[in-house]
Every structure is written in structure tokens, then in C-alpha cells.
Design brief:
This protein is α+β, with helices and mostly antiparallel strands. The protein has five helices and 23 strands.
Length: 352
């Protein structure tokens, strides 16, 4: 009998607790403040505080669609405008041992970008993976064909007015065409191009500082595209950024005069060859698809990586030697896609 009574009491207690809980829940649903406005307000404030304190990636945010602009890198084109404002910059070999640059902008307003130069077809692969509006001034036959077949949203400055793509007097032709983000967006809207994007960034940015503790020292990086065209990056331990040198000269911005710097550098090795297109202009081609070797460099250190791209439009995935996708510091990135046999050197700064 005692056991039976105990069991009955326990069951009744459970039922009572359930009934009270249901009543309390219904009351809260109908009147969230019945426990007291202070309790509710404090809970909301604490929730907002937690959200406000969570750091947000700054280099890539918002819904603005990226804009990819082909930039001339001939010595007569330097200095260039806008490189420090790009979230990513791709530099790739072109004919004559020269390299050309494609700068990607997102959510910035610039009065001058350039000098703008013509398209080469393999740059399209990186414009596509960034979901970018592709801007150029002229094109090679291969680029023209691929822009059409791949359905690239492009803006060819040659076909636009001199108010939208203008020639400046402080550089000589063909290294003197400039444009602006305002004019690019005006043309994009006129052409019916989408100007917003929900696509994730190619790089896995993090607000936690990445220091590559097990990496090799990387304070002086030299990337030879050809005998006459070398890029060098020098690390500044105070700013934790790299300063860019090209063809022996420190690079500065055309508009501001500031040094061109980068937080992150990615080196990727891709075999290039001369096109047999019958024009004998030495135009290059390369297969961007597949797994390529490279380096990720930041904060004075470098690690070996692989750069994996499954199709021309697919986003490149950068992985460490353990096959894990790398985290990248929240900052601008230069992607140096260089010839596979380039003698890239990564060293400590000499003490002189």
C-alpha cells in the first residue's frame, strides 16, 4: 500500500508540473511582459549585445555585385589607380613576357580606375568565379569568343562613350584609358546586368588573425613572370602588410600616391603556352582547371597549398597540405598566377 501511495503521489506531481508549465507557456505567448518588462528588456539587450560584439569580415561584405576591371601593367601604364581598393587582384602572364592585372571591387566608389586594357580569355575564369561584371577595353579574338559562349556580363569600353571611358593626358596611348565605378554601374544598369550578388566569397576569410605558425619565413618574395618582368613583395612587420614592387620600382597609387600593399598573397603555378592562332602576336593560353601547386603568404610566413578548380566558372578552393581549406586573413589579396617554371623565391629579409 505504501509503495502504491508513493507512486500515485509522484504521478500527481508530474501532472501538476506539466499543467503549470503549460499555463506558464501560454501566458508568456499571450503576454511576454507578464514576468516584468525589465526581464524581457534585459534579455533583448543581452541578445543585441552578443550580436553587436561578433566581429564581421570587412573586406568582403554587402550585396553589391563585384566588378572586375582589366588593368594595364606595362611600365608606361604605371602607376595604376584603384589597386588598393580591390578586395582581390589577379596578375597573370600575357604576350611578350608582360603580365596583366584584373582588379575586383565590391561596395566601393572610385572616381578613377585604370589604365583599363583589353581582355584575355583565361581572365574570364576568375571573373566568373567571383560572379563579377567584367570590364575591359578591347579583347583578343579568343576572349571575344569566350565572352559570348560563356555568357559573361561584360562591358567593352571601346564600345562606350568618352564620358564613360576617357583618355588622360599624363600617360600615352594605349596606356591611358580610365573609368570609374559610377560609369561602370550606369552602363551595367543600361545593359540590364544584375548589380547585386548573394554569392559567397572565393576565399574563406576570418576575423581571427592567421599567423601560419608552422610556415616558412616569408619577408621577401620574388615572382619572375619573365626576365624583364619581376614582382617583389617586402614585408613590413609593423603594419603586417606587404609592399609591392614591379620591374624594380615601388608601386604607388595613381591618384593618392600611397604605396600598393597587400595583406595576403597567393602564388599559383599554371603552365602557359603560346597560342597558334595564326596572328603571330605571341598571345598566351593556359588551363586553369585542375589542381595546381602554390603558396599562401601572410603576416611574414608562407605555407604550401593546392589550388583546385573543377570548371572554368567554379570557385577555386585553396587547401593546405592536410587537404583542409585554408582560412585567410580579413584583408586584400593579390593572386599571383605565374608560369609553372617561374623561380619564385620566398626568403627572410637580409640584414644590411
Amino acid at each position: 500500500m505504501k509503495k502504491t501511495v508513493v507512486i500515485i503521489v509522484v504521478i500527481l506531481c508530474i501532472i501538476a508540473i506539466g499543467v503549470c508549465s503549460a499555463i506558464l507557456y501560454n501566458r508568456m505567448q499571450n503576454d511576454p511582459t507578464f514576468l516584468g518588462t525589465d526581464v524581457v528588456n534585459n534579455a533583448e539587450e543581452n541578445s543585441n549585445t552578443i550580436v553587436a560584439q561578433m566581429p564581421e569580415v570587412q573586406i568582403y561584405k554587402g550585396s553589391d555585385r563585384p566588378i572586375a576591371v582589366m588593368i594595364d601593367n606595362n611600365i608606361d601604364a604605371q602607376p595604376q589607380a584603384g589597386l588598393n581598393d580591390a578586395y582581390m587582384v589577379y596578375e597573370i602572364i600575357v604576350e611578350g613576357g608582360e603580365s596583366r592585372i584584373m582588379a575586383l571591387f565590391k561596395g566601393v566608389s572610385l572616381d578613377k580606375i585604370g589604365p583599363v586594357r583589353s581582355s584575355r580569355h583565361y581572365f574570364l575564369d576568375y571573373a566568373l568565379e567571383n560572379d563579377a561584371i567584367y570590364v575591359h577595353y578591347g579583347w583578343s579574338p579568343q576572349a571575344q569568343s569566350d565572352i559570348s559562349s560563356l555568357g559573361v556580363n561584360n562591358i567593352n569600353g571601346i564600345s562606350e562613350t568618352t564620358k564613360e571611358f576617357w583618355r588622360v593626358k599624363d600617360k600615352r596611348s594605349p596606356h591611358n584609358v580610365a573609368t570609374s565605378t559610377e560609369k561602370i554601374l550606369e552602363i551595367a544598369n543600361r545593359k540590364g546586368y544584375r548589380t547585386t550578388s548573394s554569392k559567397d566569397s572565393v576565399l574563406n576569410y576570418t576575423t581571427d588573425e592567421i599567423n601560419l605558425e608552422n610556415g616558412q619565413v616569408a619577408e621577401d618574395i620574388t615572382i619572375p613572370y619573365s626576365a624583364s618582368n619581376k614582382v617583389e613583395w617586402i614585408y613590413n612587420s609593423e603594419t603586417k602588410r606587404y609592399t609591392r614592387y614591379s620591374k624594380g620600382d615601388k608601386q604607388t597609387d595613381w591618384t593618392t600616391g600611397e604605396d600598393i600593399t597587400a595583406k595576403n598573397i597567393i602564388v599559383e603555378f599554371i603552365a602557359n603556352s603560346t597560342l597558334n592562332d595564326g596572328e603571330n602576336k605571341g598571345r598566351q593560353t593556359m588551363n586553369t582547371v585542375g589542381s595546381k601547386d602554390g603558396y599562401y603568404i601572410t603576416n611574414g610566413k608562407a605555407i604550401k597549398i593546392t589550388c583546385e578548380k573543377t570548371t572554368r566558372s567554379a570557385q577555386t578552393v585553396y587547401k593546405d597540405e592536410n587537404e583542409n581549406e585554408i582560412d585567410v586573413n580579413d584583408g586584400n589579396t593579390f593572386v599571383q598566377i605565374c608560369p609553372i617554371n617561374a623561380n619564385v623565391t620566398i626568403e627572410a629579409l637580409s640584414e644590411e
